[in-house]
């Protein structure tokens, strides 16, 4: 199967290949091993049978020798018990011959030799019977002469039988040597097959696993990279080739990304349109209410003045919300221009504090700031926007008569500006979510758009810095942001508050 087709297989099919290919190889390996083991067992069985046959032949030879010795004694002593022993040995010989014949079934050469030996044995048995009859007759002289002849002839036949059995044993031992070599070869072959089979099976499994893992991992990396690209609003990678599940998932992901991009585009167009269309009339309304409250169109009574001030605050909040929406949209689209230049942070801090003085005077909140006499390459107006937002929040959530403090510190690589208040603090579970759009701490009664902190975060990050919060419930909150200080230098002359 071509590599491209393997890559395009579905995950389930790849899994089947990973299982079935090593399994098929394993079956072939086990079958070959079983066949060789069977061959070795057969050779071992033949070797054992040869040993058994040789043992039977040795026993038969011993019986023949015993028969000759018993026959000689019987011919000399004419002891009846020796005659009975001679008959018993004949029975044992017959049984040995039967067992040998059974063990040699299917072996033509051995059976032929056994037939010749058995013929000699039958002649020997005939002489033994004749000897016994001669001994048991009443003619003593005839018995002695005949017994001597029969004994000598029986000894000759016994020698012939032994020679035949020796040839039989020699033939069997030659076969046994071949069988021993065959068994040794079979054992060596089994060990070789076992070692090679295990090694090849491991290599095959590893090769398939590495191949499919590499292919699948590379395609998964494309999907993971697409998720990062989508969050960063970058173009996605080209569609994956093939018809497997990953290719289908990538296609669905592209379709989802296209749909989200379209929705985001419509949302931005809607926000821009609404913000633009609302800001002009609201600005005019804000100016008219301001003139009305100031008495330009005539003095109003106390109730009318209070209502006018309330309406003016509401319009100001709407204008701020629209400006925040436009800033957020520009920051997300990367269209907000930053005017980076050498900036004195002390001037930024002083300007920001003065901008919120009127907001702090109402509840009697004291705004303090330390010397932050540093120069840094930054957009001073945008940093002032960050500080004003943080100061406004701190004043809004501080108790009457409290203190809001701005401090600064520097390290070898960065400077840190902090804004601390004495408010109620922020619960730990909300200290990260407040930097997301439209996210606020539940239960707050101070209002707000939920866009100020996200805007601050975006501005700080565009300066290459980070922003965070340290807070403990009931003990106040400190918002801080850190900016790179590689090119900043401390001013030689400090400024007083």
Walk me through the structure.
By secondary structure, the protein is of the alpha+beta class. It is 69% helix and 9% strand. It is built from eleven helices and eight strands. The protein has helices at 3-8, 11-77, 80-103, 108-136, 140-231, 245-294, 302-333, 345-355, 357-361, 380-396, 452-462; strands spanning 341-344, 366-369, 374-378, 403-410, 414-420, 466-471, 477-484, 489-490. The protein has a five-stranded mixed beta sheet with strand order 2-4-5-7-6. A three-stranded antiparallel beta sheet has the order 1-3-8. α2 (11-77) runs antiparallel to α5 and α7 packs parallel to α11 (452-462). The two termini are 80 Å apart.
Q: Keyphrases for this structure?
A:
about 500 residues; alpha+beta; three-stranded antiparallel β-sheet; 11 helices; 8 strands; about 10% strand; rod-shaped; disordered C terminus
Strand order of the largest sheet: 2-4-5-7-6
Mean pLDDT: 76
**What is the structural class?**
alpha+beta
What radius of gyration results from the CA coordinates? 56 Å
Low-confidence stretches: 138-143, 487-497
Give the amount of beta strand, in percent.
5-15%
Largest sheet: 5 strands, mixed
Count all strands and give the number: 8
Question: Span from first to last CA?
Answer: 80 Å
Order of secondary-structure elements: HHHHHHHEHHEEHEEHEEE
In short:
The protein has 497 residues and is of the alpha+beta class. 69% of the residues lie in helices and 9% in strands.
